[in-house]
Amino acid sequence: MTRTVYRLTAKDFAVIEAMLMRRRAFADPIAPMLERKLAESRVIAAGAVEPDLATLNSRVIFRVGGRSSQTRTLVQAEASAPVGSGLTVATWHGLCLLGMTVGQLALAGRLDGPAEEVLLEDVAYQPEAARRAARDPAAERPRHVLKLVHSAPAADWPLGGRAKIRQTEGDDPGPSAA
Q: How does pLDDT run across 72-116, given as a tens digit for each residue?
């Protein structure tokens, strides 16, 4: 990756730090990239997260090199998202995207090949910003309103039937039936 400044929430920083401790113990090739990510990141408060910042559980639209755009959810582990919709931060691209803002371009350095340019095109869903908007009653949100499309008079019954009381006196089987 290039000398880019990433912004991570305290939770995201802790996840990367824990990954680094586990990966270092097994001499994993992604460990140097994890170290670089932590060194080039600054921690921000969860309340200060803007809607254009890629954090864990954000749905991001990104492009790698000159290829077509992809939409994925940044996840900690592969099992936490439906097949094909998640991008774990344990991959080169997922780790690169974490902490980026919309329009930011970075290089995902790889040991098995040349570095690739990763461009964050959009953040379709940002969980911290969505939570903040849900708590703020003044925030403009689309209101979901039910609309009654037909109303029938109470005296009308389907197929001309009349209402009958289902249970009449003498029909009660008593407590032994329960």
A: 999 987 676 677 788 999 888 999 999 999 999 988 776 677 888
Q: Which of 120, 121, 141, 119 is nearest to 129 (CA)?
A: 141
Q: What residues does each domain of the chain span?
A: 6-135
| Residue 12: DSSP 8-state | H
Consecutive H or E run containing 62: strand 59-64
**Taking the domain 6-135, which CATH number applies?**
3.10.50.30
Q: Give me the DSSP letters along 86-130.
A: EEETTSHHHHHHTT-BTT-EEEE--SSS--EEEEEEEEEE-HHHH
pLDDT at 157 over 70: no
* Contact yes or no for 60/16 (Cβ under 8 A): no
Pairwise pLDDT comparison (135 vs 95), residue with the higher score: 95
pLDDT bin (cut points 50, 70, 90) of residue 1 is very low
Distance CA 172, CA 81 (A): 52
| Cβ neighbours for 98, distance < 8 A, ≥ 6 positions apart | 6, 8, 12, 16, 37, 54, 55, 56, 74, 89
pLDDT of residue 147: 57
Written as six digits, the tokens of 72 are 């994925």
pLDDT > 50? residue 3: yes
